[in-house]
Amino acid sequence: MSIMIYNSMSRSKEEFRPQQPGKASIYVCGPTVYDYIHIGNARPAIFFDVVRRYLEYAGYEVDYVVNFTDVDDKLIRRAAEVGKTVPEVAAQFIEAFHEDTAALGVRTASMNPRVTEHLPEIIAFISELVAGGHAYPSEGDVYFRTSSFKDYGKLSHQNIEELQFGIRIEVDDRKENAGDFVLWKGAKPGEISWDSPWGPGRPGWHIECSAMARKYLGDTIDIHGGGTDLQFPHHECEVAQSESLTGKPLANYWMHNGYINIDNEKMSKSLGNGVTVHELVKGVKPEAIRYFMLAAHYRGPLNFSEEAIAQAENSVERINNFAGNLKHRLAAMDNASPLEDGQHEALREKIAGIEQLFQAKMNDDFNTPDAITALFELVAAGNQYMQGDLANAKGLKLLQDALERMDDVLGLLYAGGGDELLDEDIDRLIAERTEARKAKNWARADEIRDLLAELDIVLEDTPQGIRWRRK
Q1: 70, 228, 261, 276 - which has most CB atoms within 10 Å?
Q2: Is residue 386 part of a domain?
Q3: What is the C-alpha separation between 468 and 471, in angstroms, rounded?
Q4: In a 3-state reduction of DSSP, which class is residue 3?
């Protein structure tokens, strides 16, 4: 079954056909590292991590690049405020980014290029644009000549005469046209800078991704991703400068995730309603944050609230309770099953159908909400199976393997895979043991007793019934 991707460029779903069979290249715009990442940054980090995971699940070898903008106006201001150098501030928040995204289950990218480590490539890229008439120096700056690229506006589907310029596009008298954007910024007194053919300065925001993507992934990327807010001006400008230089498409598929609102208001610094991952994970399980992000389709808006997070925590708890019960039931059982393989055909067929549904939903533009629904179908089928009389090690292993395959894409299981039973799980097992003893099912009663003993759960008979405590 083919993977279909909604391409922002064509505004339609297209079959994914990578340039090299069996290989996929992805470039996702990373953060400007002047502060801790907020949940708006976390959404693309988590979603594109799932895209990368699913392509690997589907058999692709994936080159996954996420850049760091480690010099710009925000970093310069932050460094001045805290009395540090720009590289010191960048190093602090790059480390924080890795810590926060690792907590969210985001796997390390194949490459995390930094702007300050690629000045030669950026300067060479700008020089080629100048030589080709697509850019021009002006009083120490260098600007891209948007009139030289006839398709400017094709990604955001805007007419060049009607464009509304984003906050990072500066309008001043040094430009030939108001829509021209900066490739190289001449240094102001006291600012960090590098030498260039146009004088000391630093790269503009848009040029960095074009230069680094070209170095690591070639002239054309399979998938270029980021938040909807980057579609214009950032990605539009990337398209213009890259395609003017190479004459080739910068990316074959453009993917953009939707905005996050906070209690139905757009998240912004001016409103003071930003939520950093660094603080959020102190009170919320990271897996619940990940679930919250994936429970809505990536292209739609997402509303963050305490109620939504509480619902996510409950849902992810159900999945992990199932994983823990599977693990502990399996550990307590004799691997030698008294049943023939044929007696598990119905379970195998059920699991296969669920996995086919999971794949169909993920193949349909990475529909994670419906993929999660398929995961819950597995949980329901597994719980029903464990309550039946035929449950044994072979069946439990079929369920566990399927859960692990699906979770290898979604990443919702707790670290450790359910090593510790929750209180309600222990109560349930004790109740099940009591019923087994009443029914003279001594094998199951002993199995539960041994399981609890392995987990250092001590059972005590009292006049009020069985009580338990942890050693």
Answers
A1: 70
A2: no
A3: 10
A4: coil
Closest among 223, 28, 256, 250 to 152, alpha carbons compared: 250
CA atoms within 13 A on the CB side of 262: 13
Contact between 456 and 471 under an 8 Å Cβ cutoff? The reply is yes
d(CA 195, CA 186): 10
Write out the residue range of the structural domain in which residue 441 sits.
423-470
Q: Is 237 annotated as a binding residue?
A: no
Residue 24 phi/psi, 5° resolution?
Answer: -140, 140
The residue out of 257, 279, 298 marking a domain boundary is 257
Cβ atoms 385, 378 nearer than 8 A = no
> Residue 231 corresponds to which tokens in the numbers above?
């579609």
Is residue 225 within a helix (H) or strand (E), and if so which, with residue range?
strand 221-227
User: Could you tell me if residue 375 is inside a domain?
Assistant: no
Asked whether residue 440 is assigned to any structural domain, the reply reads yes
Please name every residue paired with 447 in a beta bridge, in sequence order, or none if there are none.
none
| pLDDT one-digit tens code per residue, 322-375 | 998 888 888 776 554 554 556 678 899 999 999 999 999 999 999 999 999 999
pLDDT at 134 over 60: yes
Bridge partners for 261 per DSSP: 266, 303
Residue 368 token pair: 């994670």
Distance CA 148, CA 240 (A): 9
In a domain, 356, yes or no: no
Distance from the Cα of residue 447 to its chain's centroid: 40
Per-residue tokens: 274 = 């930003």
Give the single-character DSSP code of 161.
Answer: G
Q: Is the peptide bond before 233 cis (omega within 30 degrees of 0)?
A: yes
Q: Of 188, 223, 257, at which residue does a domain stop?
A: 257
Distances (CA, A) of 457 to 323, 438, 454, 470: 19, 21, 7, 5
Residue linked to tokens 């997070």: 309
pLDDT digits (tens, 9 = 90+) for 49-58: 999 999 999 9
The CA R_g of the chain, rounded to the nearest whole Å, is 27
* Rounded Cα gap, residues 235 and 153, in angstroms: 10
> Based on the structure, what is the number of domains in the chain?
2
pTM of the model: 0.87
Rounded to whole angstroms, the Cα distance separating 76 from 429 reads 58
Query: Euclidean distance between the first and final Cα of the chain, in Å?
Result: 51
Q: In 10 A of CB 220, how many CB atoms?
A: 18
Q: Which residues in 29-61 are b (16+ Cβ under 10 Å) and which e?
A: bbbbbbbbbbbbbbbbbbbbbbbbbbbbbbebe
Cα 156 from Cα 230, distance rounded (Å): 10
Three-class SS state of 297: coil
Q: Is 289 left (phi over 0), alpha (psi -120 to 50) or beta?
A: alpha
CATH number at residue 63: 3.40.50.620
